[in-house]
């Protein structure tokens, strides 16, 4: 008996059968079994247990959120308390400054009143005698030389100022810093003051600070100090003296001429004008370092050198 062979010839081999099995079972059997066991356990879990698990998870999330909120609230409260504390300290310091300033002003007022009383009593006592009058005349000359008395009269008003900011500069994040070269320096004021003294000035003040024999003009950082008092731009130099003589001699000073040219080249302000009426305050009294007893018969004139 002869069997009919399938088309293509012969029986299916063992390799072909294995390939069919692989194509039919794409999932690993062990993995499929584990997934089946997990699904079975989930299906067997009672509904109450599942709800408890979900409720416990929500409680944990709510607790974490509550703790986070509490931490944020505590942090904000501490920050607010710190800011409030700093504001209170700052306000207290400002109050102390105002109190001390008021106290200093009151003491200054009392000092000036007592000084006027002492001066008046002294003048009345000295005027009664010829010797006393000589002492008063000598004292008046010394006070005038020490710039201890306010003065008033015609003179010059000299103004020095920094260059104006560049119109093209960025006022927000650009070149806001002024050029140091185009700023008034202490040496400029020293040149002007020395030239004015040489031109015949009788009294000088810078921004209301009267210059005396021991006055100093210095530069500290970016500020100009006159007798350790800061003065600001623009700098006004008030001068008592003959306006015509002062202006003529002042402008012809070589250092002043060079300084004016420098200011013009850098766009700085340098001008002066004659004034009919200027008032200058008294300078601060110098510290008393020594004193001598006035001899009987009144003060004597200084001996002539060489005598």
Automatic annotation (TrEMBL):
InterPro entries listed in its UniProt record: DUF881
Pfam families from the UniProt entry: DUF881
Keywords recorded for this protein, A-Z: Coiled coil, Membrane, Transmembrane, Transmembrane helix
Keyword Transmembrane assigned: yes
Keyword check for Transmembrane: yes
Any one GO CC term of the record: plasma membrane
Coiled coil spans: 97-124
Positions of transmembrane segments: 59-76
Family: Belongs to the UPF0749 family.
This protein's name: Uncharacterized protein YlxW (UPF0749 family)
Organism in which the protein naturally occurs: Petropleomorpha daqingensis
